Amino acid sequence: MAFSLEKKNIIVLGIVAAFVIIAIRLFDVQIVNKDYRVTADNNALKYEIRYPARGLILDRNHEVIVSNRIIYDIMVTPVEVREFDTASFCRIFDIDTSFVNGKFREYRQFRSKVGFRTLTFLNHVSNEQYNMFAENLYKFPGFSGIPRTSRTYPFNAGGNLLGYVSEVDATYLKRNPSYKMGDYAGRTGMEEAYEDILKGEKGYKIYLRDAHNRIKDHYMNGDYDKPAIEGKDVVTTIDARLQAYGESLMHNKVGSLVAIEPSSGEILTMVSSPGINVSQLAEINKYYQDIVSDPYKPMYNRSIMSPQPPGSVFKLVNGLIGLQEGVVTPATKYPCSRGYHIGNLTVGCHSHPSPLNFYQSIMMSCNAYYCYLFRSIIDNPKYDNVQESFTKWKEYVMSLGFGTKLGSDIPFEQAGTLPSVERYDRIHGEGRWKSLSIISLSIGQGELGCTPLHLANFAATLANRGYYYTPHLQKDTPEMPIDDKYKEKHFSMIDTAHFSTVVEGMYMAVHGGAGATARVADVPGLEVCGKTGTAQNPHGDDHSVFICFAPKDNPKIAVVAYIENAGFGATWAAPIASLLVEKYLNDTIAPTRVWIEQNMLNANLLSKVHIKGGKQ
Q: Which of 86, 260, 266, 352 has the fewest beta carbons closer than 10 A?
């Protein structure tokens, strides 16, 4: 009996203890710790989202190139909607009743998922529409308006480079679960690259609902509200005025124009033409279909996404390798009789004096010279076979930044293409190909594909006499330092002494006498060093290419102009690149060169471009 009483007391004490624990927990939850209430799943609370202002984008001189303006979204909380004046609502926003009815059918279909959530009903309504809505708000129970920001563009330049912001979709949400429906994010260009910096942090205000789901009071006098935090500004390396000038030079042309500061790797200008007009970016949904259906692909950033044959500018690469391998010296001469001839093979060349030394081969862009030089590299007896010497040649080329992604902070950068031993084994048969089989590489043709960014980076490497910094768009500032990888020098496998030899040939190409191929790029007082290229194109006219830097000593800018289907490098690419250099370094165009500027600004080369579907 005593045992039973003792057991009973233990049970009673256990029950009492359990009730005490529960009471303490309830007291903590309901009185001491009210945080349990403040969750998005608590149906007694209504969260009114506050969207932050997106950070500004500034150019290298702190001029604003992307700003904000206030716009409004119309929101709806379906569970709060009662019968409302649909006709009046539709008149205000110039929409059809079928749109409204369709939305509410969707809400009913997914009512369990929608719950008490507040959803975006209309995006980016005008100030006039919002004001009319606000005056008649009592007619539309369950609807509200939320201010947010939309992008504006003080400079009409850089559409492809800047990118656009749009509402996230289901695909984006799967990849980025921290975002919610109704959020906006940068989807291309700088807006995407710097999304984490620019986006800021959402805030909210919390209100209490009553038993009938009506909004009653501001919850806890706003103690649990969270203010929106503005995004941080990003200072870019772009010179906005130079970017605008570059785009004017590239108007009605297909191609790219890229400029880099050699001493830092900072990208000064990146033009892809035709490009997106910045006036279309803020309302990308309105123009998206027209943009993506344009046969000239204005959304396609050719500067980083379009690997093309480099043409004769690649002779400088082979020249550097030849000097490094010791198969050529500055004094080495080779003949040219309107090209390189061996057996049934001819690699044609233009008429010029013969024979030529190394400097003159660059100055006059002799094809035959580089056929001889390239074969000396590939047939070098110090290697056991062609495959071994070719592999070494490829290592040199890659050390100059080709055939790989450079690692810039620009989304969708392409690696370009470099052939491999395996590829040539497949084409010609294993062990059955020789230097003549791949002779097109000698003049930058064949299986080579380089983006304009690769070529601009190579121009910067030449300017630095053997090294480059990874090209980038974010400016290094005390408030927002760049990654250390952008401060690292990347040295090539070529001795720095050989770069001075090549640079001298580039200087002669611009400033030399008869036979110099780039004299049109001679800007008085700037000592421009350059190399023309005419890249063969099986689909139409050849591409016009030019790389350069200036001044010769202590260079401030390195440039590539790649004009598709425009013909000789000296005709279009060289004038355009040299004008960009002149504008950057002198801030004006010399009177003796204004005629060149006018020719480039007024030229329309679109008719030369082969477009699928035949549209010109």
A: 86
Tokens 């330092």 belong to residue: 481
Q: Tokens 């009973």, residue?
A: 8
Number of domains forming the structure of the chain: 2
* Cβ(419)–Cβ(448) below 8 Å: yes
At residue 180, the 3 state secondary structure works out as: coil
- Predicted TM-score (pTM) of the model is 0.87
Rounded Cα–Cα distance for residues 327 and 41 (Å): 75
pLDDT at position 204:
85
Residue 560 lies in a domain: yes
Residue 99: give the domain boundaries: 45-78+86-158+199-229
Q: What is the pLDDT of residue 11?
A: 67
Question: 3-class SS at 118?
Answer: coil
* List of the chain residues with pLDDT < 70: 1-14, 16-43, 209-216, 611-616
- Residue count of the chain: 616
Rounded-to-integer distance, Cα 589 and Cα 584, Å = 10
Collect all residues with Cβ–Cβ distance below 8 Å to 611 and sequence separation of at least 6. 295, 296
Residue 543: the pLDDT is: 94
CATH code, 306: 3.40.710.10
For residues 390 and 509, state if they share a domain. Answer: yes
Residues 320 and 444 in one domain: yes
Res 400: pLDDT: 98
